[in-house]
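Tokens in:
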């Protein structure tokens, strides 16, 4: 095999014992990863949890005195007893050669979770914004992302379509912390700490992605792109990997005596059948004459067919889809759309009981034979279609029959891919469409991007300032860059779930909302970020005598100070001070930022629960958001166990008293759109018996068994 094996063979011939020993050592050495990335894993990684109340059995650190900036005692102690009246805890040193014990004031302790420890996560709600009755909520979770990812294995295992992350680039300029300490330029373990941090998170992220079709997108710059590329190859040997070079700062940043840096890199890791959607955008201006040629696709004579909004044929009765029986109000003078009403429920309700707004007439879905029918889409979707010029009103002759046309998903998909072009709009804003003439005019996206809209300073930093005047965040991405990047994977997936677990200022969620508005759809984004303050702020706060966990400290943290308010401002169109956001969106879908989006968001902070409390139903309030998230984060949430023993919302139900199974199952069987049923019981036989009575399309989950098993068997690091 090699010169070395030949030599060992000859030693073996002369001295079998020495030869065998040498052979053993050689095999041990060559069994190590010969190629690829070898790095120190830096176990254990740990995180301090300043918001967590100290409990008996916890691991804690003793904090340095207030108004000091030193690291303090880094050793870990175990809490053996708590004396609440004295405000003290008795501690025992962990992993000590010589046993050591002491009593310390509770307020000088911080709970520490080592990543190898099992955790039982929960969420507490810290606010919400609602502008849509039907869309799922984007969620923002304040927490250590390693633990939030673990929590998501209960709610989103194999359910994520796209992960987009922009991790700390490991510049050496205090841009991230490992085990609570900034990693600085002269740290000799700087790269291996970064790799260890990334590897741990990517391994859990892998469990969340849809194996059959999903994408992981990671942005990076020259400091770590080589190591990251190898790490991705090692963690995801089954995936296809591509790297795009992206111009983000045409002026460039000096790099000593080297070339000025103008770009960064984006890794795309494709799983299963994931593919880049052709959106007729090459992403690169090549400088060829062709760049400035009008690329507007030429139209063919073939006509684009619109759908009739009134359902005909099968399933066309009012009772077949009770939510799709609602009035559309037409202005009596102009014959144009005035507004779209709400579904008339229950199915037996009389439509004549609905009063049309003054000056309008109500048009109902009435079939040719005069019976009550239904529209093809729900009222919220129809509003979206009209809003985008994708629906139109037919001739109005004063009566209560008007026909409406709308674009089906199939046609909208062809607009998105460029196969159909919007060549104009009529006076009501309705699109005029034509099939695109030449197939060649569809431009394939390339691996080098140089769009001006991707400038991080203008459309990242400055744009963020428009939403949050006076607040700063280091290096947000250009909103339009994230939007373009995501569109390649979610344009044809109106229900996609996107996850960003280094979400920083919340650009990814903002981009998902823009995509929903442009293409229609109910895509949702889960944003995870911790509540770190900047290094400067940290120094000032410490000097002023504050510690993490104090209100003054936490309110300046990224999640509370930037991420949540930015997403709220994007949705409402108002700054945190209540002023209209100034300026318009640019490039695609230009409109005033103050219009906001018809979207919802829910804000949470990660909590750490005790296993016994969960088992005894005492942590329900904190588990409740996880149950809602698992059911799709849509509609209302069951926050408390109801006295009658069960509860049902739009998408899920909870049975907490199995003696109430009969009314519960009856309600479940009548409900539409239900996805999950949670049944709280220790009795497997009764659980099975109830699940047999549930509809086939509803997933039964046993509590707290499913939850506890998920986290008890979750891999430690
Ligand atoms: C480079 S920024 C992301 C910027 C983002 N793409 C934007 O456009 O605003 C990375 C973010 O990840 C957060 N972060 C770093 N380590 C984390 C961890 N272990 N858990 C949660 N968040 C973390 C940092 O606080 C920082 O806000």
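Residues out:
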């Amino acid at each position: 095999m090699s010169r070395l094996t030949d030599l060992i063979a000859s030693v073996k011939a002369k001295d079998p014992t020495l030869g065998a020993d040498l052979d053993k050592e050689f095999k041990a050495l060559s069994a190590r990863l010969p190629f690829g990335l070898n790095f120190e894993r830096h176990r254990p990684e740990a995180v301090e949890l300043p918001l967590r109340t100290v409990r008996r059995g916890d691991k804690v650190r003793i904090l340095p005195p207030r108004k000091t900036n030193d690291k303090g005692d880094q050793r870990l102690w175990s809490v053996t007893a708590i004396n609440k009246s004295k405000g003290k805890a008795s501690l025992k040193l962990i992993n000590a050669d010589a046993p050591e014990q002491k009593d310390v004031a509770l307020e000088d302790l911080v709970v520490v979770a080592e990543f190898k420890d099992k955790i039982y996560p929960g969420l507490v709600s810290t606010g919400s914004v609602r502008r849509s009755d039907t869309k799922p909520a984007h969620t923002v979770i304040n927490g250590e992302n390693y633990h939030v990812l673990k929590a998501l294995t209960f709610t989103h295992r194999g359910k994520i379509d796209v992960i987009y992350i922009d991790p700390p680039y490991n510049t050496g300029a205090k841009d991230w912390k490992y085990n609570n300490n900034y990693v600085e330029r002269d740290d000799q373990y700087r790269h291996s700490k970064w790799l260890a941090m990334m590897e741990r998170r990517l391994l859990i992220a892998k469990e969340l992605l849809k194996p059959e079709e999903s994408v992981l997108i990671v942005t990076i710059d020259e400091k770590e792109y080589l190591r990251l590329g190898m790490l991705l190859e090692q963690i995801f040997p089954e995936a296809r990997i591509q790297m795009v070079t992206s111009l983000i700062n045409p002026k460039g940043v000096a790099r000593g005596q080297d070339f000025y840096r103008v770009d960064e890199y984006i890794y795309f890791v494709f799983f299963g059948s994931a593919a880049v959607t052709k959106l007729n955008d090459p992403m690169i201006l090549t400088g060829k004459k062709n760049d400035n040629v009008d690329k507007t696709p030429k139209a063919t004579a073939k006509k684009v067919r619109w759908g009739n909004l009134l359902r005909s044929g099968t399933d066309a009765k009012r009772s077949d889809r009770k939510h799709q029986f609602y009035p559309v109000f037409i202005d009596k003078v102009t014959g144009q759309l005035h507004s779209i009403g709400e579904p008339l429920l229950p199915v037996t309700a009389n439509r004549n009981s609905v009063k049309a707004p003054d000056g309008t007439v109500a048009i109902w879905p009435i079939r040719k034979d005069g019976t009550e029918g239904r529209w093809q889409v729900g009222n919220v979707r129809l509003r979206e279609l009209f809003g985008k010029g994708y629906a139109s009103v037919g001739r109005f002759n004063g009566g209560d029959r008007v026909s409406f046309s709308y674009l089906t998903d199939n046609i909208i998909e062809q607009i998105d891919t460029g196969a159909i072009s919007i060549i104009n709009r009529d006076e009501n804003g309705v699109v005029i469409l034509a099939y695109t003439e030449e197939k060649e005019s569809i431009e394939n996206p390339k691996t080098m991007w140089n769009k001006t809209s991707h400038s991080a300073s203008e459309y990242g930093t400055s744009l963020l300032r428009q939403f949050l005047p006076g607040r700063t965040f280091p290096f947000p991405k250009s909103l339009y860059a994230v939007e373009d990047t995501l569109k390649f994977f979610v344009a044809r997936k109106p229900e996609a779930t996107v996850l960003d677990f280094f979400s920083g200022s919340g650009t990814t969620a903002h981009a998902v909302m823009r995509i929903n508005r442009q293409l229609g759809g109910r895509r949702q984004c889960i944003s995870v970020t911790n509540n770190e303050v900047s290094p400067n702020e940290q120094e000032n706060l410490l000097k002023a005598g504050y510690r993490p966990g104090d209100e003054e400290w936490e309110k300046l943290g990224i999640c509370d100070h930037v991420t949540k308010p930015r997403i709220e401002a994007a949705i409402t169109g108002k700054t945190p001070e209540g002023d209209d956001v100034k300026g318009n969106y640019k490039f695609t879908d230009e409109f005033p930022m103050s219009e906001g989006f018809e979207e919802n968001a829910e804000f949470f902070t990660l909590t750490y629960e005790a296993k016994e409390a969960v088992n005894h139903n005492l942590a329900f309030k904190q588990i409740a958001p996880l149950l809602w998230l698992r059911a799709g984060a849509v509609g209302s949430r069951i926050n408390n166990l109801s006295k009658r023993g069960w509860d049902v919302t739009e998408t899920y139900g909870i049975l907490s008293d199995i003696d109430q199974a009969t009314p519960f199952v009856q309600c479940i069987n009548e409900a539409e759109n239900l996805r999950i049923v949670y049944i709280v019981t220790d009795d497997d036989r009764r659980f099975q018996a109830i699940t047999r009575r549930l509809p086939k399309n509803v997933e039964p989950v046993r509590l707290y068994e499913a939850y506890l098993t998920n986290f008890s068997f979750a891999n430690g690091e």
